[in-house]
Specification:
The chain is of the alpha+beta class. The chain is 20% helix and 41% strand. The chain is globular and about 50 Å long.
Length: 138
Amino acid sequence: MTGVTRPEDMSPALAEAFNAADLDAVMALYEPQAVLVDETGQPHAGIEAIRTALAELLTGGGTMTSRPRFAIVAGDVAVSSAAWQLETVAANGETVQATGCSLEILRRQANGRWRYAIDCPAGQIATTTARPSSWAVV
């Protein structure tokens, strides 16, 4: 993977790397200090915590599709969203589908490539989820 040069290409690049089960390619899309917020609202801060969280997801296999919804750029920062679907096979052989709309903050790097600073695949966080005191839900 050579890197993402347009913010609207981030989610398709993530899906491509996921479908190839290429954890290194997935991780190349994240800044070292990035935060991934999982479906429970749990933040995984830093590249090693994100690697651990995503390695679990990749071991489950499956196929991800992702369609960009929007990308709004202000200088070297962008907010973007994608509609995604993940299809996996459960241990009992049944097909399981998960869908959602992500919310992401991207930052342009010095080399012109975009990377995730904050990745929230669920797009929103349940207000009942315990969060660090620095988070605000309005």
